[in-house]
């Protein structure tokens, strides 16, 4: 396919819309659409909208109805229904590949012979041959055309038809014909694909339809050559060539010919033998063809003002391609011909300009992709940096509170250890002080015992001498027993007092440590609450900051997309302006050529008509020489009026064409501008929807985060209360067990019991 717009021709509508909505990509349903376009191309050789430039293609795909076949009646109902099903603009209702496989157009296929023939033709070797446009047969035709009077002479006894006034339609190309005769030209507007075959000197232009594929049975020429060879011998050369032309098959590049067919760029001329009966040469359109060879030498199209193809064909070259291949044991030979002409060069130039425009659009698209990739990389880097910063901030905040907790625990431990050390020192000092007091009390107690002993002795001395000894012994024994008892009781009392004092001191120290533990636990729990509150606040702030960053990135992305879209729209407008300018310049050039060619055609035709008119007067022998001169003068004046009317008609036609071209160009620009405005509006609406959806998503995320925060707070408070209860339970158990050494929940406090060594 020479056109570089082929990829754009198969774009589905949702693929075109992806230009403004990149986050809603298309799926495999786009390939179903491309399948339908490909089937139309296989059926009609060219895909839909192939004659348009890329901008018009996008406009057609986005705004028009799904493409259809140019002649639906020539195709089966199953094929038309298959195309209608596949070419659905709504991707939701467009069928899948599995559903299309169940369609009768596909499921009803029983043979792959057509595919095998196409594959064999595609793999066949191609032999190319380039021929000049003027071969031997054409040279003979040109020689015959130069002497029409000698070749085609009429019987003098025949009465030629009377001449029509020049004011009436003279040319069979413009005038309506009821029954076309065999010696005049039949013109009709048609596609430029034509076939010509020359025989004798009579030109009959015949219109060809746009190339359509036919069955392979009609395309295989070699298989039918044996059957048609005998029949072709009985036919005239022109009829044989006409039969071959009817059997020829169009190809994607040119119309296939197997006989003497030739391709041309203007109207189609199929040259057939002149009728044997000269009386049948009269035109039914109201004008006389004075020479049957006139149309063979010069064919004037009065609608376009162009010359016959025979003049331009002499400067063209014919490219013939021959393919030979074997299908099912049958050798097939297919020959295609293509005229390489000025129009071909213009088409090649147009294709080159289209490819250049597509290259410009592809460069813009590559630059857009590069900018999008750079922006995406920048956004990813920003997001990574933000997440890394969030992690660093969270880690720093956690580290700060962990350090505070460690400092608090360390201070608590140091304070408890200091309290224990102070308690031990105070315990030793108190024990020493009490011991000293008890020693003094014990000394005083011993003095009292001594006084009691003296009192006992003094009482005994008061007794008579003979009783004194026994009484002394008895009193001393009693005193000794009483002394031991009193001494034991006194020591026990001192020991009990010391223990009570130590217990009181220990209990006081325990209460102080418990108070310190409670105070430290409260401070620790407050620090934990502050830690979690700071982390929660940081999480909320991070959510807000992340949302703002994503929102700004989305705005940046749409800003870049709008910028790239505006650049692309500007490039599209430039291309559309260049396209309109090219069309206008081509129209001006064609009109200029037609305007410059018309006087030459009129002079040549005028000379020929004048010669034929003089010949008619000479044959009729009507009037004297002066009368003939007067008739010739009147005929010349009528010819001048007719030519002037033709020039005015051509000028009016050119003005109408130019107005239509300007209107078409304005319509193209208006339609393009409308589509671009719709794209911009759609992009803005899509951006608004995305921003709104992003805000709603953020609000929902924030709401869910806050809902999850309540149970987190509740779990934290329950954990802190549980620890407080455990601490109180531990203190209570310590008091119940009368543990002399109160401890903390994490580490037992060290207490030193009183012993005799401490008192010493």
Automatic annotation (TrEMBL):
Residues 627-654 have a biased composition (Basic and acidic residues). Residues 130-143 have a biased composition (Acidic residues). The keyword Signal does not apply. It comes from the Eukaryota. PANTHER family: NON-SPECIFIC SERINE_THREONINE PROTEIN KINASE, PROTEIN KINASE DOMAIN-CONTAINING PROTEIN. It comes from Castor canadensis (American beaver). It catalyses: L-seryl-[protein] + ATP = O-phospho-L-seryl-[protein] + ADP + H(+); L-threonyl-[protein] + ATP = O-phospho-L-threonyl-[protein] + ADP + H(+). Residues 1-106 form the Protein kinase domain. Belongs to the protein kinase superfamily. STE Ser/Thr protein kinase family. STE20 subfamily. Residues 169-180, 187-200, 244-255 have a biased composition (Polar residues). Pfam families: Pkinase, PKK. Coiled coil: none annotated. Keywords: Kinase, Phosphoprotein, Serine/threonine-protein kinase, Transferase. Residues 130-294, 458-483, 619-654, 735-760 are annotated as: Disordered. Its EC number is 2.7.11.1. This is non-specific serine/threonine protein kinase. It is an enzyme of class 2 (transferase). One of its GO terms (molecular function) is ATP binding.
């Amino acid at each position: 396919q020479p056109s570089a717009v082929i990829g754009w021709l198969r774009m589905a509508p949702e693929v075109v819309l992806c230009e403004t909505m990149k986050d809603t990509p298309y799926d495999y349903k786009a390939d179903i659409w491309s399948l339908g376009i490909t089937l139309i191309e296989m059926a009609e050789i060219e895909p839909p909208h192939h004659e348009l430039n890329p901008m018009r293609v996008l406009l057609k795909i986005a705004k028009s109805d799904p493409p259809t076949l140019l002649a639906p009646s020539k195709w089966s109902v199953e094929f038309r229904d298959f195309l209608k099903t596949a070419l659905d603009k709504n991707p939701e209702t467009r069928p899948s590949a599995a559903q299309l496989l169940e369609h009768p157009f596909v499921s009803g296929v029983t043979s792959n012979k057509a595919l095998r023939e196409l594959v064999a033709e595609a793999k066949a070797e191609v032999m190319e041959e380039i021929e000049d446009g003027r071969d031997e047969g054409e040279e003979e035709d040109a020689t015959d055309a130069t002497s029409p009077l000698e070749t085609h002479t009429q019987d003098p006894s025949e009465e030629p038809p009377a001449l029509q006034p020049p004011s009436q339609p003279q040319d069979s190309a413009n005038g309506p014909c009821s029954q076309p005769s065999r010696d005049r030209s039949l013109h009709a507007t048609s596609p430029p694909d034509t076939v010509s075959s020359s025989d004798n000197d009579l030109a009959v232009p015949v219109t060809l339809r746009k190339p359509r594929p036919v069955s392979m049975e009609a395309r295989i020429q070699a298989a039918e050559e044996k059957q048609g060879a005998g029949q072709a011998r009985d036919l005239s050369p022109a009829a044989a060539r006409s039969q071959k032309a009817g059997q020829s098959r169009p190809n994607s590049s040119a119309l296939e010919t197997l006989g003497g067919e030739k391709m041309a760029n203007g109207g189609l001329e199929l040259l057939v033998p002149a009728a044997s009966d000269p009386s049948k040469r009269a035109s039914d359109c109201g004008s006389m063809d004075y020479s049957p060879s006139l149309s063979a030498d010069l064919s004037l199209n009065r609608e376009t003002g162009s010359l016959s193809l025979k003049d331009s064909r002499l400067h063209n070259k014919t490219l013939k391609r021959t393919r030979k291949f074997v299908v099912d044991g049958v050798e097939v030979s297919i020959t295609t011909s293509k005229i390489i002409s000025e129009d071909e060069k213009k088409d090649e130039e147009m294709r080159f300009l289209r490819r250049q425009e597509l290259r410009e659009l592809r460069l813009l698209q590559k630059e857009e992709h590069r900018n999008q990739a750079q922006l995406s990389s920048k956004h990813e880097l920003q997001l990574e940096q933000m997440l890394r910063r969030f992690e660093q901030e969270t880690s720093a905040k956690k580290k700060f509170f962990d350090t505070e907790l460690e400092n608090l625990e360390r201070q608590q431990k140091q304070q408890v250890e200091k309290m224990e050390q102070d308690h031990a020192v105070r315990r030793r000092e108190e024990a020493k002080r009490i011991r000293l007091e008890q020693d003094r009390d014990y000394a005083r107690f011993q003095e009292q015992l001594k006084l009691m002993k003296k009192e006992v002795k003094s009482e005994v001395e008061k007794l008579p001498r003979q009783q004194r000894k026994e009484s002394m012994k008895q009193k001393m024994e009693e005193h000794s027993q009483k002394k031991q008892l009193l001494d034991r009781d006194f020591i026990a009392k001192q020991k009990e007092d010391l223990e009570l004092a130590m217990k009181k001191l220990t209990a006081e120290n325990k209460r102080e440590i418990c108070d310190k533990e409670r105070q430290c636990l409260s401070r620790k729990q407050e620090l934990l609450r502050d830690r979690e509150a700071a982390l929660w606040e940081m999480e909320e702030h991070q959510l807000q900051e992340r949302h703002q960053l994503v929102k700004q990135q989305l705005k940046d992305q749409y800003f870049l997309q709008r910028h790239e879209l505006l650049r692309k729209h500007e490039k599209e407008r430039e291309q559309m302006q260049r396209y309109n300018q090219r069309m206008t310049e081509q129209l001006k050039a064609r009109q200029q050529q037609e305007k410059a060619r018309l006087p030459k055609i009129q002079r040549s035709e005028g000379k020929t008509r004048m010669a034929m008119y003089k010949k008619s007067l000479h044959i009729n022998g009507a009037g004297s020489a002066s009368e003939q001169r007067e008739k010739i003068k009147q005929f010349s004046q009528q010819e001048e009026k007719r030519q002037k009317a033709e020039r005015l008609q051509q000028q009016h036609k050119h003005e109408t064409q130019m107005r239509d071209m300007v209107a078409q160009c304005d319509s193209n620009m208006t339609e393009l501008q409308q589509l671009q405005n719709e794209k911009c509006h759609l992009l803005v609406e899509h951006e608004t929807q995305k921003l709104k959806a992003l805000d709603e998503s953020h609000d929902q995320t924030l709401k869910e985060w806050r809902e999850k925060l309540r149970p987190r707070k509740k779990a934290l408070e329950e954990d802190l209360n549980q620890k407080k209860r455990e601490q109180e339970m531990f203190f209570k158990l310590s008091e119940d067990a009368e543990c002399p050494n109160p401890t903390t929940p994490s580490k037992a406090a060290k207490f030193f019991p009183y012993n005799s060594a401490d008192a010493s």
